[in-house]
Structures are given as C-alpha cells and as structure tokens.
Amino acid sequence: MIELKNIEKYYANKGVKSYILRHVTTSIKQGEFVSIMGPSGAGKSTLLNILGMLEEATYGEYHFMGEDVTAMNERKRIELYRNHIGFVFQAYHLIDEMTVAENIEAPLLYKKIPGAERKSRIADVLDRFNMVAKKDLFPNQLSGGQQQLVGIARALVAQPSIILADEPTGNLQSAQSEQIMDLFRKLNQEENITILQVTHSEKNAQFGNRILTIEDGVIKEDVSVSK
Amino acid sequence: MFKLNLKIALRNLWKNKGFSLINIGGLAIGLTCSLMLLLYVNYEWSFDKQLKNFDKIYLAKLNLKFNGNIATTGAVPYKLTGAVMEEIPGIKRASRFYVHHGSKLFSKGENKFKLKSLYVDPSFIQILRYNFLYGNEGSALSKPNSLILTASTAKKLFGTENPIGKSVKWDNLKELQVTGVIEDLPKNQSIQFEILQPWAFFEQIDSSVKTSGWGSIDCAALFELKDNASVEQINGLLKNFVVNKEPELKSYIYEPFLFPLSKIHLYSQFENGKVVGGGIDQVKLFAFLALCVLLVACINYMNLSTARSEKRAREVGVRKALGSSRQTIMGQFILESLMLSLFSMMIAFALVEVSLPYFNNLLAVTIEINYSSYLFWTVIIGLILITGLLAGSYPAFYLSSFIPVKVLKGFKGSIGTLSFRRALVVLQFSLSVCMIISAIVVYNQIQFLKNRPLGFDQNNMVQLDLEGAFKDPSKTEIFKKELLQAGAIVAASEFASPFTEGGTITGDVSWPGKPATDRSIINYRSTGFAFTNTIGAKVLAGRDFSPQFSADTNTSVLLNESAVKLMNLKKPVGTIIHWDNEPLKIVGVIQDYFSERLGKIGEPTLFYYNVKTSGVLLLRLNPNQSLTTSIEQIKRSTQKFNSAYPAEITFVSEGMQTKLQSERLLSILSNVFGGFAIFISCLGLLGLALYMAEQRSKEISIRKVLGAGLSDILVLLNKDFMKLVVIANVIAIPIAYILMTNWLKKYDYKIDVNYLPFLLAVVASILIALLTVSLQTFKVAKANAVDALKYE
C-alpha cells in the first residue's frame, strides 16, 4: 500500500543542511498496524506528515496505492487523501465553533457526499462510539478522551483505508488511552483499516503488529510484535 | 517607565514595518483629507470675520413679492439709509454702496485697466475700517472726484510711486484725483472692489439717483449699530418703514430688515423672507465629511491593531505575569497609537502643503495655512490627540484585558470583540458606499445640466462692452458692418447687459386678461436687430426685430415662451400689451434660453429694441474661419474705433462655465474624498482579513487536512467578508437615496435617481473588497497546514 524509497528531508540554512530524515526506505501493507517510535526530534512526526501528504519530502520516492505521490499535483493529492487517509491528532484539532456532529460531518462535505448519506453515516458513527447524546455539544464541553473519540470518529466517517495518528493518546490519562488503543486494534482487525501511529509509549506500541524505531532521521529497527 | 514605554513603542513600530506602514499610511491619508476639508471649512467660515467690529455690521435686505413668492434681495431704495439714520435710533453709521454690472475704464497715460469700482457714502470706510497706506479715512471721500485705490490697483496704475494727488481718467471722460490707497482686501471678504468712489460722483454722472423714489431698488446698504442697540428692535421698526412712506408699495410687501454681514457669505438663501441656508449647507457637509474620513481612518487603526493582537498577546501575558498592571499596558498601547498619529500628522502635514496649490486651483479658492494662528496649532494638536486616543483606546482596552495564564497557554482572541470589529467595518463601508453613490449622482446631475439644451448656441459667441466711442450707436453700426464684411462675424446684436449675468426686472407690464391682483415680475432686456440669429435661439412664432419694420424701434416687443405662458396668451403675435402704460405690440415669441442660471425653469422675459441703453455687443463669430483670425480682426477693429479702451472680448462659453461652480466643487470633493475613504476602508478590511485568517488558521488547517480544496477555503473565508460588505450596502443605499433625492430637490431640471449608481456602488464595493480580502485569504489558504498544527 505504501512504498517509501530513500526518503530524505532536510532544511538548508545558510548552506548547512540539517537533516530530519535520511534514507528512509520501507513499505507498509494493507491491514498492518504500525507504531513509529523514537526519541523527541527523531523525525517521527515528519515521517507521518510526509506519509499523510501534508509535507513533501526533499528527495526520494513515495508510492501510495501504486501511484507516485511526489509527481502528483496538489488537486490530485487532495483527492487522494480525501478518499483514503484519515488523520488523528494529539491535540484533537476539533473545530471549536462546531458541534460534535458538525465536526464529524466536515470531511463528508469536502467529499461532496449527499445529505441523506451524510446523515446516516454520522448517525452510524455516533452510534458506534456511543456519542449520540453528545452530538450537539461543543468540543470544549467534552473531556479530552471524548474529544479524541470525536477526532477518531471524524477520521473514520470518511471510510479511509489508512488512519495516521500522531500521538493520539499523548494528552490522555491511561484509562482513556487504553480505550482509544483498543478501538484502533478493533478497527484494524475487524475492518482491516491500516493504522499508522506515532507514539512514545511502549505499551501503546504493543497494540500494533509492527514497530518502526527512528533515531536521528534513520530507521534503526523494524520489528514485528509477537503476540 | 514612560521612557521605557516610549522605547518599546518605537521598537514595536520599527519591528513591524509593514504593519506600521499600512497604519501610518491609512491614518496619514485620513488626516490629510480631514485637514484639507477643515482648512476649507475654516476658510468659508472666516468670511468677513476679520473685521474687528463685524458683529455690529449689518447689510440691509428687502423682502418683496415676486411672482407669487416672497423674494429676498440685497437691493434697497437709495433713500433708505438717510431716512433710517434720521428716524430709527440705535444706528451709528450707514452707507449705501452701488455695484456696477461689469467694470469701468480707468487710465493713467498708457496704463488702461477695466476695474471694478463701488460708489459709496463716506461712512463706508469708517464702518469697514480699511487700513490706509496713503491718505486717511476722514478726507479720502470728501470730494466728488476723489478715488480710493487698493494697493494692487495703485501698483497697476502708478507702479511704485506715491499716487496721492495724482489724477486718473475715468471712462475716458473725467479726470479724478487719488485721495487714498488702502491695503489689498482679504479674499475672504464679501464686499470686493478695486476702487472706491464717492456717492456724490455717482449723483453727478446719473441724475436719476437723487430723484429716484421708494419703489426702485438699486443699491446695497451697510449699517453699523451702536453698542447697546438691539437688532430685533430695529428690524421691528424697519418692517413697515418703506410701506409707511409709500403705501401703494404695500401689495409688493417691501419689508427691509438687517442681516449680519458676517453671515452673508454662508447664508445666502432665503425662502419666504426667512434665511434657509446657502453655502453653510456645503460647509456643514464638508465638516461632516472630514469627520467621517477621520473616523474611517481611526476604525482602520483599531482593526489593524487588534488584528495583530495574537502577536502581542504573548507579550501582554508575560508582562502581566511579571507583575505589570493593566494601566501600564494600556498606557503603552495608547502611547504607541499617539506616536503613530504624530507620525501620520507629520506626513499629512507635508501632503497638505504639497497638494494645497492643486486644491486651491481645483476649487478656485485661496486657502493658506496660517502658521502664526493659535487656532491652527490647537487644531493640529487636538487632531493628533483625538486620533491617537480614539484609535488607540479600543486596542488598549482589548489587549490589556488578556488573562495571562490563558494567553500563555496559547489563547486566541475572543469572538465577542470580533463582532464589534465587524460592526466597525460595516460602518466604514456604509460611509464609503454612501460617498460613492453621492459622487456618481452629483456627477450625473452636472453632466445632465451641462448637456441640457441651453436654447442658444454658446460656442463661437463673444461679447464686448459698449463703452467709449461705442456709446454712439451709429459708430457701433459701422463697426458691425466692417466686421461682417471682413467675414469675422456672421451676426451681431446689442444686448442690455453681460449675457451670462442677470439683469433688470419690472412689475409694470400688463396684458389682456391680466387679473387685478397679479403682481407678476418680468425680466426685460434691450436688444438690437437680429438678436435671435446672433445668439442662435429659435423663434417659435412671428419674427425677430428687423430694420425693415420701422415700428420695431419703438413699439415692438418680443416675448419668450415663459412670458407667453405667464400671460396665458392664445395667439401672442399681434397682441398689444402695456408697459408703464405704453402700448406695445408683440411681434415674435422666442424659445426659452438659459444663459443666466442652469437647472432652473425659464423666467418670463420681454425683449425690446434699444441700442442706446444696451451695455454689451454680442457677436456671432464666422464658423468658417479660424477662431484666432476672427478674434484678431475684432480686436483690430475695436482698437481702431475705440482706441481709448482696451479691447476686452469675452467668450460666452467661459461665462457659462462658472455657472456650475458649486456643483463641480461638490462633485470633486465627494469623488476625491469618497475615493480615499474607500481606500482606507479597504485597508481596514485587509486588517480584518488578517485578523480572521490568523484567528482561524487552525480551523483552516484542519479543514485542509480533512480534504478541503483551495476554493473551499477561499469561499469559506470570503463569504464572511462579503456578508459584511452586503450589510454595509443595505445600510448605505437607503441613506444615500434619501440624501440624493433631497439634494436634487433644488433643481427644476434634474435626473431621475435610478438604480444604476446604486448598482455600480454595490458592484464596485464588493469587487474591491473581494480583491482586498482574497489577497490575504489566498495566502492563508495556500499555507502549509502542518505549520499551524505542528506545535500545539
């Protein structure tokens, strides 16, 4: 599903290149649950952003579902991630002025999905996440865990094939954290959604089936998690 | 503390150069506009107020019945001042003054000039207290052949030598003696002249002056009241003054009253005998305009400053966390805005100085900055303070209200303040749209008046005064023949007075079927033969005066359309009417033409043949010959026939040009300042766009991540602004409509206010706003979403 070949990312400042990522080559298959780990500043988030097409690599090849992302124009790229990628953020990034239901609806609007189907999908997602009662609340009326649930619901409602999560539980207490990770595992196993998460927590990484460890922009380790 | 604040303020201005530039630029333009307008308002306001005793000086006005309405004129009977001085207490001095139509020739050797002279009583110079450079107030007007010159007139005639006692030839007839030279008159004085001559001289040259009755009103009169006199009391006594002398005038009302000289310039419009306005309306309008432009500029500053609040929020938070009080922070922001307003004022000042000559030229005024005037500096400092405080108060209150913990945790401005700023932008845009619509309507009306058929052909038409040798009609006749033969002109006719100025009126015309109570007043003008041909007017019935009919020189008259309508004549040609009880036969009807006033309905006018009393000669130039050749020929012939006088040939079209002066002024000012207001408003909108974009950068990024395209984001952001502009339009349109229909009321001929100016203003304002906002939103929409989301 994802093929990375020799991905490099650096910022040039007065002729000095400071590398974020070096020679990253890997591939991720449909249905994997990958955790990216490593110390702060190692380049985990940058890698995730490149995978999510929010940033461009300075150098290297990136194939997403067989298509060359580096050669794509912006519209095509937006089209691609509209249909295939869902994002989950550490800080949830819900739109404060919108209710829970409206937040979940937003990506569907951009996918130009007709009103009736939007309604049914939102109802479906709300139902699945047990948030029907909270659908008219605003983000600041919810707890952190609940906000992140909305964030995931929003990522899921567009029926993506891959979810990119940047420290999804970084702001949460352990109980809530576990709940979210359980949810990811369930999605991965039952719906075969590819999940890529950046995390600091060893424990969270164990929920997945593969761990990529990055240090100083280089992939140090690539191991499967044995159950 | 103050020094530190000042340093920080300067540093902040320097650090954000772009922002400071927009802010200073906006404020400077706003201040320039309002300074300019205030200077103009001050100029208009200062009229006649430079006289030390201006509050004691009054002009006589007279109410009289005029075609069914009460008209108010500045002309009074010759006898009025003398009788009033004798019979009404409380008056210190009184003087008549007589204003000529046109000017008279004054010559000293080869220096020949047509100059504007007034005939005045000796008390005139005591009332107005001119500064004498030579001679003195007491004796300057004691002899009939005395002359008082203004300094520049003296320089024209005599150069640098002392002119006292020297003689000047008047109208090529009489030698007069210079008895005084006064300082040049300030431009902002209503009574203007180049030469003063004693009333006694006027009585010498015109014997009818002494014998003229109460019914004829020919001169103006100036009164100076005693210190304790009440003008109400005097006006009460004046009310029936003339009518008591001559009861038959009762039916014409004839009520004189005193009106302050200092008000004459701005309050010149009377209705039903009461003052209703005049130039003051325009002055008020401009003062209001100045205020609006300044307000728009201040709103701008508020918007831009608060837009930057995100950047300043952290600073405020840290300062508060370090223990700074709210007052200190407010002080700093106010200080910053005061500095900006000071810089802006300096730029505005330079701009005003640079553009003042153009402005003066454009409006035909002479406005100067009086640097020694306390008022000027007070206004300048006042403007700086007001602008600084007004513009700085809101940002200061808003920014200093941040709660440090929240700010430091990455707080974004609250929504409540945004709606306030939205209201400000709506206000700004409403004002600007109002100005645009007004500018368009005023322009359309001017074009309409300009393009309306005048009823005569103003091009290729010149006039010259009949004076000197031309006083002899037979000489004029030869002169005309010579020009016709030379091919310089195709037609010529004498006319009563300068063609584009007003003339004489009478109430003594009667016609078959005239009701006994009818007090209609009719214009009368003397002409020569071939009058209609010369001016290019249309004869609707009958014929023009012609040498073939001997009766034309004494018993024939022409009427214009309006006069025929007034007299309700079915078959005007051949009808006998009476004027001063003399029977006259109507031989022709001329279509109404408009040479005296534009935009008004035609006034009933009677034309009669009399070349002796006619004051000017109208010439229709030969269209098949170049203008310069014709003019050269006319000049040469004039010199030959009338060598004592300078050949002054004036174009009628030039006279017509001056008719729309005040309309043109309004149009220019509303255009220029409306344009600036729109420009500043756009800066304000840019400020708001900046703010919104910053405010919503997170939201926009999330939306982008969720799959929103560039166009989605642009629509999302612009929609909000367009809503504001549309609301502004909705507010502005009815206001502009009411204002404009009111303004158009004073014209008899006017455009219909249709939807076009409104549509234009709406489209223009939306387009301009869209462009401005898109400039900013495009940048935000294009920005990388990650940058905004990365470090939360």
TrEMBL record, chain A:
Question: Which is one Pfam family of this protein?
Answer: ABC_tran
Q: Which residues form the ABC transporter domain?
A: 2-225
Q: Which GO terms describe its molecular function?
A: ATP binding; ATP hydrolysis activity; transmembrane transporter activity
- According to the UniProt entry, the coiled-coil residues are none
UniProt keyword DNA damage, yes or no: no
* InterPro entries per record: AAA+_ATPase, ABC_transporter-like_ATP-bd, ABC_transporter-like_CS, MacB-like_ATP-bd, P-loop_NTPase
UniProt keyword Transcription, yes or no = no
SMART domains associated with the record = AAA
Q: Do you know which CDD domains this protein is assigned to?
A: ABC_MJ0796_LolCDE_FtsE (cd03255)
Q: Name one GO cellular component term.
A: membrane protein complex
* Keyword annotations of the record: ATP-binding, Lipoprotein, Nucleotide-binding, Translocase, Transport
PANTHER family according to UniProt: CELL DIVISION ATP-BINDING PROTEIN FTSE (PTHR42798:SF6), LIPOPROTEIN-RELEASING SYSTEM ATP-BINDING PROTEIN LOLD (PTHR42798)
Family, per the entry? Belongs to the ABC transporter superfamily. Macrolide exporter (TC 3.A.1.122) family.
From the Swiss-Prot or TrEMBL record, give the protein name: ABC-type lipoprotein export system, ATPase component
From TrEMBL, chain B:
Protein name (database record): ABC-type transport system, involved in lipoprotein release, permease component
In what way does this protein cross or attach to the membrane? Multi-pass membrane protein
Q: Which residues cross the membrane?
A: 21-43, 285-304, 333-354, 374-399, 420-443, 672-693, 724-743, 755-775
From what organism does this protein derive? Pedobacter insulae
Q: Which InterPro entries match?
A: ABC3_permease_C, MacB_PCD, Macrolide_Exporter_MacB
Q: Where is the ABC3 transporter permease C-terminal domain?
A: 288-399, 671-784
Q: Where is the MacB-like periplasmic core domain?
A: 20-238
Compartments, as annotated in UniProt: Cell membrane
Give the main location: membrane
Q: Name one GO cellular component term.
A: plasma membrane
Keywords for this protein: Cell membrane, Lipoprotein, Membrane, Transmembrane, Transmembrane helix
Instruction: Keyword check for Iron-sulfur, yes or no.
Output: no
Q: Which domain of life is it from?
A: Bacteria
List the PANTHER family: ABC-TYPE MACROLIDE FAMILY EXPORT SYSTEM PERMEASE COMPONENT 2 (PTHR30572:SF18), MEMBRANE COMPONENT OF TRANSPORTER-RELATED (PTHR30572)
Q: Which GO terms describe its molecular function?
A: transmembrane transporter activity
